[in-house]
Amino acid sequence: MKQYRKPVEKPLLEIPAGKLEDDEDRVEAAKRELEEETGYIAKELTHVVDMYGSPGFVMNNYQYILRIM
């Protein structure tokens, strides 16, 4: 998806993303976010990896979910 981001003052190509609700399964959250942001409904998703974007600076944890086509 393309979305304008003010800090860089241009549209960027991004993947759908979001936050987990309390006690929400990460794959179910990925399905929900995909539908909310794109309108697409995924039938089967697979968790790939958990990563920290910049652990020396912030504690953001990224969980990558994949749909194999």
User: And the CATH topology?
Assistant: Nucleoside Triphosphate Pyrophosphohydrolase
Q: Give the SSE order as H and E letters.
A: EEHEE
Architecture, according to CATH?
A: Alpha-Beta Complex
Extract low-pLDDT stretches: none
Protein traits:
two-stranded antiparallel sheet; 4 strands; NUDIX_hydrolase-like_dom_sf; ADP-ribose pyrophosphatase; globular; two-stranded antiparallel ribbon; NUDIX_hydrolase_dom; Nucleoside Triphosphate Pyrophosphohydrolase; 69 residues; alpha+beta
Report on the architecture of this protein.
This protein is an alpha+beta fold. Helices cover 19% and strands 30% of the residues. The chain has one helix and four strands, in the order ββαββ. The chain has one helix at residues 26-38, and strands at 2-5, 10-13, 46-52, 61-66. β1 (2-5) and β2 form a beta hairpin.
Question: What's the structural blueprint in terms of helices and strands?
Answer:
Blueprint: E1 2-5, E2 10-13, H1 26-38, E3 46-52, E4 61-66
Antiparallel strand pairs: 1-2, 3-4
Task: Compose a concise summary of this entry.
The chain is an alpha+beta fold. The chain is built from one helix and four strands.
